[in-house]
Amino acid sequence: MPAGRVPARGRPRGRARGHARGSAHGRGASDVGQFKSYDDPDVGNVIPPFAPSRPVGYHFGQPLLRNTMTKAVEFFSLFFTAEMISSIVTHTNSYANEHIFLGTHQSYASSDGSWQDATADEIKRLIAILIYFGLVKVVGDVDKYWSKKTLYHGLWTRTILSRKRFKALMALLHVVDPASEDKADKLREVESFITYFKSRCLALYQPRQNLAVDERMVKSRHRSGIRQYIKDKPTKWGIKLWVLADSSNGYTVDFNVYIGKAAGQNVSANGLGYDVVMKLT
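Predicted structure:
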């Protein structure tokens, strides 16, 4: 070695270095045969026969007569059935009576201190107002929807439900049985409601053979432990759903709500993607 030159530290030199390289290449060459090349023909999967238990398409449970199912509210009622509305009425009144008796919501009580029982018609009107809020934007306080000022005379909210009753129903609205809630479940306040809604999605439509499973964000600014943020989505803040949909038209056949990694949703050894697909199919 010429004087003054210091060999690089940690680097093998001479024959030993070449031998190490050859050994590495040798091991890699023995593994190549395990993989297919671009010249190998593709072997397709065996697709099972498509044999649905009922005809493909919509199933309303009754004959579709002429001039029926022509209004949006009729389609809405296929999912928000009279049974569902009645259940909301029962649970809301149960929850309201309990909390007013305990003295926590006295401001929503009647003049005699009792709760004025909600009715199915009031719940429908409440839902109508919430949809109306989404269609007609008023900047500022929600009370402006009931304002009598000239600027707000075109609003219909006052004709649907009084402001006081709206706030009372919103404060004490309950869609599940308060006595059956599991405090460890993040979906405890909507679990049975979601289960019933999903059963309607399944009952009303028989999907075609090609289905898709993907995530979907439902826009929401509510405050809870299930709200998610996904920066790459058009809807960044909201509730994340895993959805099974018909590829031909996008109909939601089934869905599950994502409640977070540390919320009892254990991932199997096959991975999250596998678990999502298997639960929905």
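Summary: Strands lie at 57-58, 205-206, 211-219, 227-229, 237-246, 252-257.
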